[in-house]
Amino acid sequence: RFSGHNFEIIIIDDGSPDGTREVAEQLEKIYGSDKILLRPRARKLGLGTAYIHGMKHATGNFIVIMDADLSHHPKFIPEFIRKQKEGNFDIVSGTRYKGNGGVYGWDLKRKLISRGANFITQVLLRPGASDLTGSFRLYRKEVLQKLMEKCVSKGYVFQMEMIVRARQLGYTIGEVPISFVDRVYGESKLGGNEIVSFLKGLLTLFATT
């Protein structure tokens, strides 16, 4: 309310069993439906379709996408805004692998998988961004719409394709170091199937970009 920015918070819940919708409904009552827009869906339909669903309800010129479990801390949003204005960037991406960015709460296996995924992608695709698998980002709305039209990946590789396609289309990307803190409740969805899917997606991007 005192940030000086006109904003709305759009919450997309895909039938989560963890009470996300109930908490969002309480926030909506406290802050008003003009600030908290709860846009639930009956079941899990995928990250890409959640982006599209959220964009339909977004009225601003810029969209910040973040996880609702506070692994992505809202304190970084003003830095994203400053960075965007500083370079007039089309995208500002939060990076765990540059400056004073970091990851907290992951075991060694998860850190190695994430680092390895980024390293392999850097070598093969040279995207010009240091963190390709994170999802804490600011987009110009029209740029996000264009990227969603181009991207075909699902799961773990989706965020990576967003950056690779952005470079391919000539969009500018700024980076802000962030601290990622793993969720306290719930479990990571990353497993063997996701890793295989990532490798397949990476080879597809290598062959088509």
Question: What features would you highlight for this structure?
Answer:
4-stranded mixed beta sheet; Glyco_trans_2-like; 2 domains; manganese; Spore Coat Polysaccharide Biosynthesis Protein SpsA, Chain A; alpha/beta; 209 residues; two-stranded parallel sheet; globular
Can you give a write-up of this model?
By secondary structure, this protein is an alpha/beta fold. It folds into two domains: 1-60, no CATH class; 62-208, Spore Coat Polysaccharide Biosynthesis Protein SpsA, Chain A. It is built from seven helices and eight strands; from the N terminus they run E-H-E-H-E-H-E-E-H-E-H-H-E-E-H. Helix 1 (20-31) links the parallel strand 1 and strand 2. Helix 4 runs parallel beside helix 7 (192-208). The longest helix has 18 residues, at 108-125.
The count of β-strands is 8
| Strands side by side in the biggest sheet | 3-6-4-7
Which band does the percent of strand residues land in? 5-15%
**Helix share bin:** 40-55%
CATH class of the largest domain: Alpha Beta
What integer value in Å does the Rg equal? 17 Å
Q: Number of helix segments? A: 7
User: Any idea how many domains?
Assistant: 2
User: What are the secondary-structure elements, in order, as H or E?
Assistant: EHEHEHEEHEHHEEH
Mean pLDDT equals: 85
Q: Give the quaternary arrangement of the chains.
A: single chain
What do we call the CATH topology of the largest domain? Spore Coat Polysaccharide Biosynthesis Protein SpsA, Chain A
The computed structural class is alpha/beta
EC number: 2.4.1.83
Pathway: Protein modification; protein glycosylation
InterPro entries: DPM1-like, Glyco_trans_2-like, Nucleotide-diphossugar_trans
Protein name: Dolichol-phosphate mannosyltransferase subunit 1
